[in-house]
Automatic annotation (TrEMBL):
Domain External alternative NADH-ubiquinone oxidoreductase-like C-terminal: residue ranges: 355-410
Enzymatic reactions: a quinone + NADH + H(+) = a quinol + NAD(+)
Keywords: FAD, Flavoprotein, NAD, Oxidoreductase, Transit peptide
Enzyme Commission no: 1.6.5.9
Homology family: Belongs to the NADH dehydrogenase family.
Protein name as it appears in the record: NADH:ubiquinone reductase (non-electrogenic)
Originating organism: Allorhizobium taibaishanense
The FAD/NAD(P)-binding domain, residue ranges: 14-331
Length: 425
């Protein structure tokens, strides 16, 4: 797998990247056609555009619209090998990565870009009942539960049961929870009205449950208020200071009250991948791997970390947020820095440039925070759409998604309303 040395030339440095998400892919692309041999290891065969996963969960897009085989993305770089395997540990002393099939993969430099996962705060048994939105499987599961609940409600004679089935509880008032709550409300409203003869839109409920006293806390106050008011105007019920105490097959218990629901979704808090445990070092807040200003993992030679799993600080000593733009910029920087390092040159330190934080709330409604100025409403929504199409992995996906968005905007129809009879509900 490593570059061979048949002509007695010194072997090329071997860089191993774990994780082909935003950070890992950006790093690999930067190292493409370089003098390094690169191996990209991921447990999945595809890269996933997570910011649009909520649209798969609400039947607006299909999984293949936002996912791309890693081999296809990196196929044009002859110096990059792709390995589909789960990494289980690292032998830092001998510079070897440990794979789940027992194989050891030697490296000269190792990049950890393993992302993050939802945090169930000690209640991992809730995951099956209230899936998060991290993978295609979870998005399909949520879509399945939403659509099956509509079908069951249509056939139910019991008004209480019908109302329960038509209730969705979204846990967590961050961007994912807000985006999902708005999209589920739109899905229910238009689908029920148009396609279900026995159901009434009055019975469709979406509850957004947040433990804190505000939603979208990463945004300025006036954008929080705008999002709050918009969601309420389209009929999303927002419960603040509402702590989830239990999740079971029938729904959720919040502050002692049981909310019966046909679908429960988890979007409350993230934690880093368990990569810190591979090195036996104490993780930082959120389980993240502490790195220095050149993204080197503290105390482990030749190991770097980027993206959601890394704890990097900005110039004021604050942790950089777990965002795609951070992971991408870090990946691009590290690719360049590693090339320089192996040429014996000293790279500059990493500095993050904020290109704006955004969340979409519904049709014609989004918010943008650029630091010095902000944007909300239809213009922000249009900009959000442009940015997300631009950020998709290639032209084919951009075209596919644009066509479907235009069609959906005009017809309000959601084409991916598929129930898979083999997917366990
Ligand atoms: C629903 C949702 C919406 C979001 N919306 C936005 C948004 O609008 N804007 C924004 O900036 N950010 C958004 N984010 C955050 C953004 O997606 C992440 O910050 C970004 O994906 C982090 O990139 P990464 O490279 O660190 O990790 P990821 O993109 O998560 O990639 C990690 C990769 O590592 C692989 N991996 C993990 N563990 C192992 C292992 N042990 N062995 C092998 N492979 C492994 C995974 O399979 C995955 O491919 C959103 C996230 C979610 C979940």
């Amino acid at each position: 797998m490593i570059d061979s040395d048949s002509n007695n030339r010194p072997a090329r440095p071997h860089i191993v990247i774990v994780g082909a998400g935003f950070g890992g892919l950006a790093c690999a692309r930067e190292l493409g056609r370089s003098d390094c041999a690169v191996t990209v290891v991921d447990r999945r065969n595809h890269n996933l555009f997570q910011p649009l996963l909520y649209q798969v969960a609400t039947a607006a897009l299909s999984p293949a619209d936002i996912a791309e085989p890693i081999r296809k993305t990196l196929g044009r770089y002859r110096n990059i090998h792709v390995v589909m395997a789960e990494v289980t540990g690292v032998d830092a002393a001998t510079h070897a990565l440990l794979l789940n099939d027992g194989e050891r993969l030697p490296y000269d430099a190792l990049v950890i870009a393993t992302g993050s996962d939802y945090n169930y705060f000690g209640h991992d048994e809730w995951r099956a009942l209230a899936p998060g939105l991290k993978t295609i499987h979870e998005a399909r599961l949520i879509r399945q539960r939403l659509l099956l609940a509509f079908e069951r409600a249509e056939r139910s004679d019991d008004s209480l049961e019908r109302r329960a089935l038509l209730t969705t509880v979204v846990i967590g008032g961050g961007p994912t929870g807000v985006e999902l709550a708005g999209a589920v409300r739109e899905l229910g409203h238009h689908t029920i009205k148009r396609d279900f003869r026995s159901l009434s839109v009055e019975d469709h409920r979406v509850l957004l449950v947040e433990a804190g006293n505000r939603i979208l806390t990463a945004f300025p106050d006036h954008l929080q208020r705008y999002a709050h008011d918009y969601l309420q105007a389209i009929g999303v019920e927002i419960r603040l200071n509402a702590r989830v105490e239990d999740v079971d097959r029938d729904g959720v218990t919040v502050n002692g009250e049981t909310l019966r629901a046909g679908c429960v979704v988890w979007g409350a808090g993230v934690k880093a991948s368990p990569a810190a445990s591979w090195f036996g070092i104490a993780p930082g807040p959120g389980g993240r791997l502490p790195v220095d200003d050149r993204l080197r993992v503290h105390g482990v030679e030749d190991v770097y970390a980027i993206g959601d799993t890394a704890l990097a600080l900005d110039s004021k000593g604050r942790p950089l947020p777990a965002l795609a733009q951070v992971a991408k910029q870090q990946g691009e920087y590290l690719g360049r820095a590693l090339k320089l390092t192996f040429q014996g040159r000293e790279p500059e330190t990493f500095s993050f440039r904020n290109r704006g934080n955004t969340a979409v709330i519904g049709r014609n409604a989004a918010i943008f925070d650029f630091g010095r100025w902000t944007l909300k409403g239809r213009l922000a929504w249009f900009l959000w759409a442009l940015v997300h199409v631009y950020l998709l992995i290639n032209f084919e996906k951009r075209l596919l998604v644009t066509i479907q968005w235009i069609s959906r905007y005009v017809t309000r129809q959601r084409g991916a309303r598929l129930i898979d009879e083999n997917l366990s509900p």
